[in-house]
């Protein structure tokens, strides 16, 4: 069914922490198994959901190395490496051990708000420096800079080193334009859980998901049904997941997903400042929702 390694359901892994704030290796490996044993197609390490800005270089290296060793050949792996300083991103790409990984996910530069020409030149430089193929990541709600359809298509045509985009702009017309005009083989992946089904309906190949980390069986089943053209079945699963997906982001990501995973006994509910756990009221809503979905997932 899948045409490329990164079709289907990808999971943006959290970084679990112990109660003392250290990286929790045991929980990390438990989460990898939870996702892969219940239908996830690939994993993303060091994405936004991983609280990557709060991790030290040593912790990042440990996470990349430990996940690669544990997963082995069970599933493709993507490493998140991006930033708003092009030369620094290039150095990271050149100095990071990416053994066991098949692609890099690189977020659009944030805060300094480059022009479309600046974004184009940044990603061309990143692609040329990367030892692995690059998946673009457009998330204007976090970066304050939208990678337009025209610039995405220009990048897709300029180099075969850029193999796709995780699109989290929420602009379905923009995403449709990319799907409509992209070169053959260029992947379009949803970066919004709630938009995954509509995006697949007009040609996207899958998702890099937050919700699937808690309910991989249901979410991957929804994606699989949609990719096979069984949209009635996919829609029923989508609607079943809808309230949970909305709750996950009510007080920000990854606070929501960590609360849900904690309710399932998969990790602690610890985040690093400036992020904080969700409110008690939202925690109870998330716990009720995720336990209900998990209980009835068979």
What does this structure look like?
The chain is of the alpha/beta class and 298 residues long. The protein has one domain (8-227): Aldolase class I (TIM Barrel, Alpha-Beta Barrel), CATH 3.20.20. It contains twelve helices and eight strands. It has helices at residues 25-36, 57-71, 86-95, 116-129, 140-143, 149-158, 172-181, 196-201, 216-227, 231-248, 255-263, 280-295, and strands spanning 8-12, 42-45, 77-80, 103-107, 134-138, 162-167, 187-190, 206-209. An eight-stranded parallel barrel has the order 1-2-3-4-5-6-7-8, surrounded by six helices. Strand 2 (42-45), helix 2 and strand 3 (77-80) form a beta-alpha-beta unit. Helix 3 runs parallel beside helix 4 (116-129). The radius of gyration is 18 Å and the shape is globular.
Question: Level of helix content?
Answer: 40-55%
- Overall average residue pLDDT: 96
**Rg from C-alpha positions?**
18 Å
Query: In CATH, what is the homologous superfamily?
Result: Aldolase class I
Q: Report strand %.
A: 5-15%
Instruction: Characterize the main sheet.
Output: 8 strands, parallel, barrel
CATH topology: TIM Barrel
Tally of separate domains: 1
Structural class by helix and strand composition: alpha/beta
Q: Assign the CATH class.
A: Alpha Beta
Question: Which architecture would the CATH scheme give at its second level?
Answer: Alpha-Beta Barrel
Secondary-structure element pattern, one letter each = EHEHEHEHEHHEHEHEHHHH
Number of helices: 12
The CA-CA distance between the termini, in Å, is: 22 Å
- Counted beta strands: 8
Instruction: Going across the biggest sheet, name each strand in turn.
Output: 1-2-3-4-5-6-7-8
